[in-house]
Design goal:
The structure is a single chain. This protein is an alpha+beta fold. It folds into 2 domains: 60 residues, no CATH class; 49 residues, no CATH class. Helices cover 40% and strands 18% of the residues. A hairpin with a 6-residue loop joins strand 2 and strand 3. The chain is elongated. 13% of the residues are buried. It binds zinc ion (ZN). The site of zinc ion (ZN) has 8 residues, from loops.
């Protein structure tokens, strides 16, 4: 079922289902206007092709995890974390960089990035 596929995709991408649905529907409506096929058919096709577009969709749906970060502070982790960019697991005792932001996010989530993901410039 389409709903189940979308739900599973939202879990995979770790985005709110509503965000994903909005992105998918916007795509579908834009194309459905041009094509003479039904919206549901279009949605189904889109859902099946989402596997290929996962990265693209994720960038659209997800805000940049490093948005608002003004500095990176090298740290040694005291707790396990995961890289905000590539989601690599970061173990306790491992070196990582803490993204510093002025505004506390509503979620209050700190962002750590692995050494490979620290922006070079
Ligand atoms: Zn990383």
């Amino acid at each position: 079922m389409l709903e189940r596929e979308l739900r599973r995709l939202a879990e995979t991408l770790r985005v709110p289902l509503s965000n994903l649905v909005r992105a998918v529907v916007e795509d579908a409506v834009a194309v459905a206007d041009l094509a003479s096929e039904g919206l549901e058919l279009r949605l189904r096709r889109l859902a099946t092709s989402l596997g290929h577009e996962r990265g693209k969709l994720r960038r659209r749906v997800m805000p940049d995890p490093l948005d608002g970060v003004f500095a990176f502070q090298p740290v040694k982790l005291a707790q396990a974390a995961s890289c905000a960019k590539c989601t690599t697991e970061l173990r306790r005792g491992q070196s990582a960089s803490l993204g510093l932001r002025d505004d506390a996010r509503p979620s209050g989530v700190r962002v750590f990035v692995c050494s490979a993901c620290v922006p070079a410039d």
